[in-house]
Design a protein that fits this description.
Blueprint: H1 11-28, E1 32-41, E2 44-52, H2 59-76, E3 83-88, H3 99-104, E4 109-118, E5 121-132, E6 135-140, E7 144-149, E8 153-158, H4 162-190
Parallel strand pairs: 2-3
Antiparallel strand pairs: 1-2, 4-5, 4-8, 5-6, 6-7
Helix pairs in contact: 1-2
């Protein structure tokens, strides 16, 4: 994966420098740095940065962060060939990369893949129960409760439970309708 990068820097070092730059820029703009990754698309390098904020990021947030990261990368010039810089939201099924992500999203549905088998299984789908020390406690739909060290997780992301989302949307609609009725009733009493 060193394609296009200065051979004097190892890919891991390049990724770490990019993560540092992206985190600094995101923080300076009041945004959460979620993750950055470096790869190769075709013959050119690709740098992907994911940012977030409560309520979600806007196109303007992505544009601003992209501009600032791009400027720093161009000035520091350690990416020696053409590259594509993509800045975006992590999406609804956002990736989980650090211990704090598992704490923050405890109770949510997720998919998890461990580097090593846990009770003979590497792929899990279920709910994040929480974190104990540096281990994620996960309720798998098929095998029950499993505990996986954070550093042994190869990949994890939230998973949207469509039925749950429809149920929550229906509750919000009902609540809005109830509030509207209360507001109408209060106005009628005032008149």
């Amino acid at each position: 994966m060193t394609g296009g990068f200065d051979k004097t820097l190892e890919t891991a070092e390049v990724e770490e420098r990019i993560r540092g730059i992206a985190e600094r820029v995101a923080t300076e703009h009041g945004l959460e740095f979620v993750h950055a990754e470096v790869g190769v698309i075709g013959r050119s390098a690709a740098v992907r940065v994911f940012i977030d904020k409560p309520g979600g990021v806007t196109h303007q947030d992505c544009s601003t962060v992209s501009h600032h990261i791009g400027t720093v990368l161009d000035v520091e010039d350690f990416v020696s060939s053409a590259y594509t810089l993509e800045v975006s939201s992590p999406g609804l099924e956002r990736g989980l990369y650090k211990r704090e992500d598992y704490e923050r999203f405890a109770g949510r549905s997720a998919k998890l893949k461990s580097r090593d088998p846990v009770n003979g299984q590497r792929n899990f789908r279920g709910r994040i129960l929480g974190v104990e020390g540096d281990k994620v406690v996960f309720e798998d739909k098929t095998s029950g409760r499993v505990v996986v060290p954070v550093e042994r997780i190869a990949k994890a992301n939230l998973e949207i439970d469509v039925e749950e989302e429809f149920r929550l949307a229906a509750e919000r609609e009902k609540q809005a309708a109830d509030e509207k009725k209360k507001s109408k009733a209060a106005r009628a009493i005032e008149e």
